[in-house]
Model the fold of this input.
Amino acid sequence: MEITTITITSTTMSSTSSSSSSSSSSSSSSSCSSDSMMEDNIQRAEKIIHKWKIDSHSHSTFVSIFHKNNTTEATLFLNSVSTLQRAMHFLSLNDKKSSNLSIAQRSMQIAMKRLEKEFHQLLLDYNHNRQHFISISNLRLIAETMISCGYAKECISVYKITRKSSINEALSHLGIQQYKHSHIKKMITATDLQNQVKIW
Done:
């Protein structure tokens, strides 16, 4: 009886050990496969984003990826940004020392710089009454993408600067001179200010 009991116990332990080893091996294999897939996704996204990297030293004419004939490229670009965002979120929680995280972060910075430029250009197009419907739709897409990636401040900054420039340009066309606060303070009397308003 004792021998039988020992035999059963030994078999059970062997079976449990084998099951545990198999489970561990399966988990490890699944993890490696997942890491490999994420690396491939990051590399594909990086390739698309670097294709549209802005070269600050280049004097070539700016070509928007949101041009009406470039809808496929725009979609690929935005999808790549989303891929990077998901990868960065996962890696920042599970593997902060991963080299893939650094690669994704650098590519994200390049992508955001490109979107800032695209946002600025589309605002100019909109302000000059060009392609209104397309501009509004693309402006919304860019703004939503930048905000979801944590670049709301940069998005708002581009908007404010571009709008201010357009307003100043419109005022200039109307013959209204732009004044700084210091200039207004020099208009000591109400008459001086009234005379200037009449000119406007």
Residues 1-24 have pLDDT under 50 and may be disordered. DSSP finds seven helices and no strands in the chain.
